[in-house]
Design goal:
This protein is α/β, with parallel strands linked by helices and 390 residues long. It has helices spanning 2-24, 45-56, 103-112, 115-120, 141-151, 166-180, 198-207, 262-272, 281-292, 308-321, 336-351, 363-373, and strands spanning 65-66, 69-70, 74-76, 92-97, 123-131, 154-160, 186-191, 194-196, 219-224, 252-261, 298-299, 329-331, 375-376, 380-381. The chain folds into two domains: 65-303, Spore Coat Polysaccharide Biosynthesis Protein SpsA, Chain A; 308-374 and 383-388, no CATH class. It is built from twelve helices and 14 strands. Its EC number is 2.4.1.-.
Length: 390
Amino acid sequence: MRKFQRFLTSVVAFGVLYGVYRYSFRTDSEGNYLFLLPGENGRSSSVEQRAVVSDETEKTVDLSRLANLTGFEYVIPNDICKENNTFSELLGVILVTSYVGHDELRSAHRQAISQQKLLSMGLLRIFSLGVIPPTESSIRQVSIEAEQRLHGDLIQGNFVEAYRNLTYKHLMSLQWASQHCRGAKYLLKMDDDIVFDPFYIQNYLSDLNQGDEQQNHLLAGYVFRSKKVIRLQANKWYVSRNEFPGDVYPPYLSGWLYITNQKTARTLVAESQAGSFFWIDDTFITGVLAQRLQIPLTALNRWFSSNSEFLDCCIRDMKRYAYQCDYYVGPNGGNGKFIMEFIQELERCYDNACYQRPPGKSLTATCVAEYKQQINPDHGTAMISQMKLK
């Protein structure tokens, strides 16, 4: 009898404990107990749920729009990142905004460093174009399509090439990368008339520690602050008060070259569809939109040279003394061959372990002295003139 009572007591106790266990803890839709589910990287499932909720707070992107431009579509689409699974986890995608007629500049970039070399570094390059303007008689669409068949590195949107359409091209680049190259960790946006050091930037991106990239925004480049709005109508960058009512732009990044990530690109593209439009692309996207979203800017101003002469002097000193260059980004000075020469000399310098410039041999001092001594029989003394970043 006592054995039966102990058995009955045990059954009742077990039933009570099971009821507490079964109904006191949260379960998912499949009946799994949430506290027993493993979290990614050792985190609990509650963190995973917050991450999902955070992702869901991102605004959706209408792929048929670029800001206020409706009916957007690709004249030349590109799925280069999906054509080979090895592209799925890239370190970065280089988005080069290029004028449709700048085929020689694009060729210079390809000759300076090939797509295959970039891929070996974990990088991929794409050129973004618009439609040929009706005023252009020397460019033909069949030539652009032949270029794509040969190189496979173009995207072209159905908006006409124009200064006031640069924002569309910029947004198309970010939208394409965030939709078609989602495996790329970072995005590098640059103009086609810019030279840059891909080897240094690859090392920078490899060492960049953002923690959880899905939770952090990134906008890094040359930061402009307190730039006044140009009200002179004769200026190419004249802006009316209807277009921008304020007198000073918010801080923004130069469109020459800047670095961002997937989350930031998606967020900027989505935000561009939610408010007013502005045609100066870098000011609008990395300034107005970034300020609206409270995305901080990271200054990499020391990377940039504002004139091509300093980069020319870098090449000279790499050849003569194996000195490292003080700059990593700058203009090509209107010379497509300069893009090839700069990167090829950089590669030779990295392979042969160039030296840091010694004290007293600053590039500024030696380069200015060099150019002051050069006499051009057609144009007089070649003096360095400061060039403003776009």
